[in-house]
Specification:
Number of helices: 20
Number of strands: 9
Oligomer: single chain
Strand order of the largest sheet: 6-5-7-9-8
Largest sheet: 5 strands, mixed
Length: 499
């Protein structure tokens, strides 16, 4: 009886509010993730160039993220990063809830089934393959996906021009997310035997919508060298900075970046499952669109797996052809739920009770992980190293000159990328912050190769770069005048180079 009341409550609740609350329970907190360090840091720097003036790391070409960076840059000019993260996640949750609730309603999923799909999807990492996800860090692509879901809804209703317009809007938040989906969209129109005239008109709607953006991006995207200093720039981006873009390295699966055979096998099984559903034609008409998209995206995945085997330079992989794998995963889970409901109609109560149980276990785990990993570990159980790092950033903020550049060495990357946010001081380089402008990739790569072991090397570096301070650990050689030291870190002032 109690389970029946729970099911009744879930299925009769407003689906938009329900999904919004669900996403907030799993993701809403004020802890800044690694990706948020990048994108919000860039937004703050773009809106307020005086924050870290003339920074190699933060001065950047805004690219397609203009709307995102202006909006969040404005917020960051008045609020803390943590507060802006909360606002951003609330906005993302609201946009996702609105779009997904409409999509699930169109597919005739109950609220319980919708939450189960989302919970399983989130629990499994949002992708069968490594490298992409949909929820829910505050970055531009998160605001592109609700528009993609709205496009699917309109496509289902045969409102092709409006569907294309939504994809066009998504492009202003993330070119690759929207661009790849537009390609899937056009293939879908072609395989469903839409007339070429209609396809041309719909493509025109999309292209007209993105024309201002394309005009802005083209001069930078299409210019610049392909090789610098004997290194191919796309190789730097794909194989050095973001290795999970590359399924293969030297002819072998890139297991180090989580490209495992079982993942690819799972995609293959799901692809065969979609073929089975398509041929059997058993699912309701509303699900046929998803089945076709699974087959289209799956085909692209396998085509580009072959391409990736031969792309040793990264010239194709830099466009992230596996972007659609997260959508593929979500659509497969929806189809599994729909197929299960169809096949077990006589055991509807058993299936719904089992769904409640799975959802309860995963949801409890998800909330617990959110509270434990975010709030307790970061705010209440700070270990000695975290406290020491807070002392470092506090000293840098309050006792060093604005505009100072810190050369950081020997500090774990996941710690050092928080330095500028907490200290308002610039850093020499950060591996996490790969420049958007490819003309800076070679210098970024070169900077990351620099290791300093003595005064002589630092002097040579100071002559080339305007470095003010050296931040490292007590175990490394002392360079410069020590101005701060605790149990884990040392800050040294570097002497001005002789003219």
């Amino acid at each position: 009886m109690q389970i029946h009341k729970i099911k009744h409550f879930i299925n009769n609740a407003n689906s938009t509010y329900l999904i919004f609350t669900f996403l907030c329970c799993l993701f809403l907190n004020s802890v800044v993730t690694g990706n948020e360090e990048i994108y919000l840091g860039w937004a703050k720097s773009y809106y307020d160039p005086d924050w870290l003036p003339n920074s190699f790391v933060y001065d950047h070409w805004v690219g397609h993220r203009f709307i995102f960076e202006v909006f969040f840059g404005f917020l960051l000019n008045h609020l803390s990063f943590g507060t802006v993260v909360v606002i951003g996640r609330l906005l993302a949750a609201a946009a996702m809830a609105y779009a997904l609730s409409r999509l699930f309603k169109q597919l005739k999923l109950t609220n319980l089934e919708s939450l189960l799909v989302l919970m399983v999807f989130i629990s499994m990492g949002q992708n069968f393959l490594p490298g992409d996800w949909i929820f829910m860090s505050v970055e531009s692509k998160v605001f592109a996906y609700p528009l993609i879901f709205l496009s699917l809804i309109e496509l289902q209703k045969s409102n092709l021009k409006l569907s294309a317009a939504y994809i066009s809007g998504a492009t202003y938040f993330h070119v690759l997310v929207a661009g790849w989906f537009f390609i899937y969209f056009i293939v879908y129109l072609l395989v469903t035997r839409t007339s070429f005239l209609t396809v041309a008109k719909v493509s025109g709607v999309y292209l007209a919508g993105i024309l201002p953006l394309a005009a802005y991006l083209a001069p930078t995207v299409l210019s610049g060298p392909s090789d610098v200093g004997g290194l191919h720039l796309n190789w730097i981006y794909v194989f050095y900075r973001i290795p999970n873009l590359a399924p293969f390295v030297d002819g072998k699966l890139n297991v180090a970046a989580s490209w495992e055979g079982m993942r690819i096998f799972t995609v293959a099984v799901c692809f065969v499952f979609a073929i089975f559903l398509y041929r059997k034609n058993e699912l309701p008409a509303e699900a046929k669109l998803l089945t076709r998209f699974i087959l289209i995206i799956g085909s692209f995945i396998f085509i580009f797996l072959v391409v990736a085997y031969f792309d040793h330079s990264g010239d194709i992989l830099k466009y992230r052809p596996f972007r659609g794998a997260s959508l593929f995963t979500l659509f497969v889970l929806i189809e599994i739920v729909l197929y299960t409901k169809l096949k077990f109609t006589s055991k509807k109560i058993l299936v719904s009770n089992l769904s409640i149980a799975i959802l309860a276990v995963l949801f409890t785990y998800g909330i617990g992980r959110n509270i434990n990993e975010k709030y307790i570990n970061i705010y209440f159980l700070q270990d000695e190293r975290k406290i020491a790092w807070n002392e470092v950033t506090s000293y840098a903020k309050n006792h060093t000159e604005k505009g100072s550049v810190f050369f950081i060495q020997g500090v774990r990357e996941s710690i050092r990328w928080t330095f500028s946010r907490n200290s308002d001081r610039d850093v020499f380089v950060s591996k996490k912050f790969v420049p958007i402008d490819k003309n800076k990739w070679y210098e970024w790569y070169q900077r990351l190769q620099i290791q300093v072991e003595n005064e002589e090397q630092m002097t040579a570096l100071r002559k080339k770069y305007q470095l003010g301070y050296y931040l490292t650990t007590p175990s490394r050689p002392r360079i410069g005048e020590v101005v701060f030291k605790n149990s884990h870190y040392v800050i040294s002032r570097l002497p001005a180079p002789e003219s």
